[in-house]
# Entry
Amino acid sequence: MGAAGPVAARLASLGVHVEHRRFEGQIHAFYSIPLAIPADPTANVAFNLLNGSSGNQTYWRNQTYTSVGSLNPTGLDTVDKTTGKQVFGMDLKLPGMLNAAIRRCPVFGGTLKSYDEAAIARRPGVKKVVKVKDTGVAVVADTWWRAKKALDALPIVWDEPAVATSSSAKIADFLKEGLTVPETNGERKQGDALGAIAGAAKKVEATYSTPFLAHACMEVMNATVRLTADKAECWTPTQNLEASIAALSEASGLPLAKCEVYRHDLGGGFGRRGGTQDYVHQAVEIAKEFPGIPVKLIWSREEDQAHDFYRPISQCKLSAGLDDKGNLVGLHVRVSGQSINATLNPAGIQGGKDMRQLQGYWAEPGDAQLGYTVPNLLVEYAMRNTHVPVGPWRGVNTNQNAVYMECFIEECAKAAGKDSLEFRRAMMKDYPKHLAVLNAAAEKGDWGKPLPPGVHRGIAQFMGYGSYSAATAEVSVSPQGKLKIHRMVLATNCGHAVNPHQIAAQVEGGVAYGLSATLYGEMPVDNQEHRRLPARCAGRRVRGEAHRRFRHQRLHDHAGRRSAHPGAPVLLGARARHPHPQAGAVRRQAGRAARWAGTVRRRHGSADRQHGRHCAASRGRRRHGADADLG
# Structure
């Protein structure tokens, strides 16, 4: 099923192919863009495509506008959002509307075996119990709370598959195998990295790990559907209207011409409300039992956490060789982890290769280019898919890949006995935009200036989605092992600035999101009673702890589309330089969430000295009183 209309025609004339594909009962929209179309990170590609501009574009400058590019701290919807007038999907009210709560098998791949509707039939407001395909059951009532409480009381028997005995430890072992197997599912090679490392004067090696992470949107998944014989309507917050209407059409059996989707503002999306329109499919199935009556489906927070398309779990082993002057002469990066394309877009895997998982390590400019020149470089990906569904999570694969690379670059700088900034600069002469944001962050972050006793400074840079980002962080660890982030300075260059205030908000939001993931967000797989990812409502905890001590530097009047922010690696780099005896507790706090497959090992010369060291490349749950404070 292809796209239609003038926009699709214009895309087709440029060689952009739009295709809808079915995956597990859902329809997803995919775009194939030929490499011949120029890619410029400063261009508004969508605007140019829709307005007939291609080839050698002429870009508008700020002086041609009266509003675009100027600081506008108040958005058009700010007042409504802050006063509660804004109507989100969960707020929708329609005449005669019913409400539904749903529960699916707690083990991925499990099915519904039986339920006892009679046990709740007499509860106040309950209208009906609806089987939702083979995997779930919903209760429909006059209010959502009555539906939810009735669902809690409903006796349900699940048919759980063999993977019910899976656990985080078993998955970690599975990923660890991918670090050493000979076959690869994507690679980038330049020179002889393995040979250069073997002959290097000094060797550095580290293994990192990042866990499953939930999106934890403030607004849980929801959709309202009304079906009649000749029309299907859906009210939902969505990041992909095409996918929503395709899902509505497929689930209802009505053609697209008889389907309407009314988009509501999102109470958070972060990739969860994109092509994976599972909640729309569910709402349609439930609404079929009530023709002509709108039915609003709202997930519980527990359901939202337990049935996500999570950020992929992965491990990464990095090895480097330094010459006698401390220069990086060889680098080997081996990523082992789950593939988003394998779950959502199998056609994106060509010849068994999935370069999407190496996002941020690419050689090609314009999107997610690695900003370092290494004479001998080998980057590899080993696909290790589990039973847990995965999908895009804000920043997608640039998140964990930035942590792996920048934490390891810090390890190499320390092993070389060099300043973190100068070690990076020496490898970035061929990447002026990467270097520019790094220099801006260093300058505005007072790099090299003295800090109070016990406070340490870190630095990091990375690129994703055409956005160049860098940051510095000043951190300390209290005698009780409490991590404190005193200050962060962030630099971004990612294109023409329409509203600089929104760009700053995007960057600051990225920091809160990234630090929450680094410190709190782990979603382990439990093989105990529930045998599922726990319904832990961690959310974005750092948002509540943060005091506003961010400084954002825009470059050349350009700044942020969605960027892969280096907030996590810069924090961890600063902490790595902390000599405090309690620093290990904080390191465990950030590292335990990853449940490291191994320790970070640093090998120096022929002595081959090894010492176990957890490098906090992920985020973790609070334990043993460890905590973090942004103040």
